[in-house]
Amino acid sequence: MKFYFSTITLLLLCILTGKSLAQNLQPEEYSWDNPEFRERFVGSYGVLSDVEPRLTSEEQTFLRETVLPLLQENPQEAGSIVAAKLSESTSPALYFILGNILLEQNQIDPARQNLQRALSLFPDFRRAHRSMALLEVRANNYSQSIPHWIKVIQLGGGDDQSYGLLGYAYLQEGDWTPAARAFENAILYRPESRDLRRGLVHSLIQSNQSEEAAEMVQKLLDEDPEDPQLWRLLANFYLEEENLPQTAAALEVAVRIAEPTPDTLFLLGGVYTSLGLPQKALSAYERVLQLPSNNIDFEEAFRPVEILLQQRLWEEAIRYSGLLRSHYGRDLNSEQSNRINAAIATSRLYVNPTPQIAETAQAYTEVFPLDGLLHLALGDYLSKNDQIEEALLAYRRSAATEEFQYEAKLRLANLLVTEERYDEAIRLLRELQEIQYNNRVATFLARLEELQLSSGS
Predict the structure, then answer these.
(1) Distance between CA atoms of 28 and 199, rounded to whole angstroms?
(2) 56 Rama class: left (phi>0) / alpha (psi -120 to 50) / beta
(3) Is 353 within 8 Å of 381 (Cβ atoms)?
(4) Which of 60, 179, 346, 410 has the smallest C-beta neighbourhood within 10 Å, fewest atoms?
(5) Is this structure's pTM higher than 0.70?
């Protein structure tokens, strides 16, 4: 069975992954919208005086009587008051507290500056490292958060948050093995956490520990069979095992449970295409264009056309191309419109060829001189209609493209044989054997060489 997943597999990795597998892991437990997380964060304004820089008596009174009462009602004013208190002799803890106040207000750069100042004054300031790590995660600077998480752990701050977000950062960077180790440590602190276990599943899949990952996914599904993300993870496992029917089944459950993403439906269409179920593939592709508020990029939306053409599903390619053109309408630029029309012309050369269709296809070969399939289709039409020299030219132009080089040269050689142009045919067949050896081609070539010898040519 042929698999057309060079791009479509990446789409699955984007479903579990966006740009990478990690991006689908949403650490809700550590979200700024999570009240419990915010309470823990606000609690970090306090200082662990036994292991971190101490506050003077005056600073303690200032924080207790002036700053803390303002934090809940007017954090911006609290920040301004702390900033006014800073001086050369100020404890690093005040810079840390100001950094946290600013971070909670999403003032990333000022928060970073104050936290860096606290760390420059006290390099082993554990909570400042934790806040810096959280800041970098919030700013999507995952690689920059990693050294701070490691420092937090080295300084005795290993817990579910530090290990969990370290694992999340490693996932974002594609470092699967350390991500798995981090999530395993985090789960020791919070074994009930679904976020942490999902993170571990992602890591295990990417580090080729598929059986362990599948077992964990199944346990999670037993707990919550209505989680579409878990079904997508299970689909990923089946795809890794090249079990396409089970991949399709898992994806179907995922799209029934929740509003599907375009990537999920594109993947489902690709799986059905490879399973030889064109109508189901077409249905999945059509659903993408029916999604509400769909702002899908044209290049993504056009990819199914290419897949359908690769699989020689001409009627499905015509239908989807027509839907694509209707979907984008006047938003299509001339190049995009031409690509759709060229795909339709290619398909129609096989479905209902007419001289008018051939003329249209010929015009598009000038627009897209590197479209090997369009040249190949035109060559097939011209060959069947005894336009030999024109067909030979179309095949040669198709053979000039890497993707269709072999197929076009084989058809070119066959056409040359029917025209008794054996020398050219033999040369082409020898070239084909150098590209990819084939026993049937070898037998055909041997017969032609014998025929050539017997004819004395």
Answers:
(1) 12
(2) beta
(3) yes
(4) 60
(5) no
Q: In whole angstroms, what is the distance from residue 455 CA to residue 52 CA?
A: 96
Kindly state the tokens that stand for 78: 């609290």
Angle between helices 298-310 and 314-328 (to 10 degrees): 170
Amino acid 44: pLDDT: 53
CA-to-CA distance for 227 and 365, rounded, in angstroms?
Answer: 48
Query: pLDDT value at position 455?
Result: 67
Structure confidence at residue 150 (pLDDT): 97
Stated as kind and residue range, the H or E segment containing 306 is: helix 298-310
Instruction: Please report, for residues 146, 201, 267, 280, 374, the alpha-carbon distance to residue 204 in angstroms, rounded to integers and kept in the order given.
Output: 20, 5, 21, 31, 43
B/e letters for 119-146, b = 16+ CB within 10 Å, e = fewer, are bebbeebbbbbbbbbbbbbbbebbebbb
Annotate 96-150 with DSSP letters as a single string: HHHHHHHHHTT-HHHHHHHHHHHHHH-TT-HHHHHHHHHHHHHTT-HHHHHHHHH
What is the predicted pLDDT for the residue at 34? Answer: 58
The answer to whether the beta carbons of residues 3 and 265 sit under 8 Å apart is: no
- Tell me the average confidence (pLDDT) per consecutive run of 10 residues in the chain, 457 residues long: 33 30 45 52 51 81 85 86 89 90 92 95 92 93 96 93 95 93 95 89 84 84 87 84 92 91 90 92 91 79 92 94 91 94 96 94 95 96 94 94 91 90 88 86 85 68
| CA 403 – CA 405 distance, rounded (Å) | 6
From residue 252, alpha-carbon distances to 205, 228, 269 in Å are 21, 10, 11
**Left if phi > 0, otherwise alpha if psi is -120 to 50, otherwise beta: which for 410?**
alpha
Contact assessment for residue 175 and residue 167, using Cβ atoms and an 8 Å cutoff: no
